[in-house]
Write a structure and sequence with these properties.
Blueprint (H helix, E strand, L loop, with lengths): L2 H15 L4 H13 L3 E4 L6 H11 L4 E5 L7 H4 E6 L4 E6 L6 E5 L6 H13 L1 E4 L2 E4 L5 E6 L12 H4 L4 E4 L5 H16 L14 H12 L5 H15 L6 H6 E3 L3 H17 L7 H12 L4 E2 L1 H5 L4 H11 L4
Parallel strand pairs: 1-8, 1-9, 2-5, 5-8
Antiparallel strand pairs: 3-4, 6-7, 10-11
Length: 322
Amino acid sequence: MSHQQSFQQLKQYAESQIIGQPKLINRLMMALLADGHLLVEGAPGLAKTRAIKVLSDCIEGDFHRVQFTPDLLPADLTGTDIYRPQDGSFKFQKGPLFHNLILADEINRAPAKVQSALLEAMAERQITVGAETYPLPSLFLVMATQNPIEQEGTYPLPEAQLDRFLMHVSIDYPDAESERKILYLNRNEARDGGTHPVPASVVIAQADLFAARNEVLDVHMADNLETYLLQLVMATRQPAAYGKDLQNWMEYGASPRASIALDRCSRAHAWLDGRDYVTPDDIQAIAFDVLRHRVILSYEAEAEGITTDRFINELINRVAVP
């Protein structure tokens, strides 16, 4: 069985367990293939926690959920040195970040020190405690969630830290038919005691995941498409070339991490679609999630009710497609 077929099986199983959120499933799989981290924003009850839990059941590795709260400390994530009175020594006790898949639930509820500890681990793939540095697992994915409804008692992530995330995915409520299927699935799980065993054929070994990542890197991107990708990012920094209105809307453009993320994610999008080449549709499909948290709009734009999604949509409409 090819790696693409394995991921198609993973997708089919995930969609049978997570109803009405195909975009979230797709973006989680893309984050796995592009070796990046995901920030997911959506109202409560939209299967954000369930999604990464189901994914962890299908990937060789371990999973840990951390509920972020205002009293959380950095050591609660990284771990700490524990004193051993029997021999007068200290032993490092690893924290939750040493697992393969991490759910940082409601990341904006924790103070800046905790957020920075997590984001440093995401960027450096290592943790330093005292004078010692400890490497994190080769397979390391963080999915952080934000609740857009409650803002009281929260600590919004600074823009420079948001840039560490590969994608910022915004999800919405399922439609009526999907919600009917959710009711049916919930009743069946209640009869089974809340369990949902995963077929062995769905579990993907870490070696196969790393091999799939190499295949994604080999997906062909034509030179003119690479130029188009870069033009989209450059347009966020120099929007005047595409209209004075865009220039008035923009305060700060996307960083070079946006170019890297667009490149990796568009290849992953094509690979998951069963192709070995990238099309303009691949780039446009993931442009919103890659750029949404990397552009900062001006005060004038916010006063006019302009959103980042509208700004990105205008860029896609105005930058010439090869």
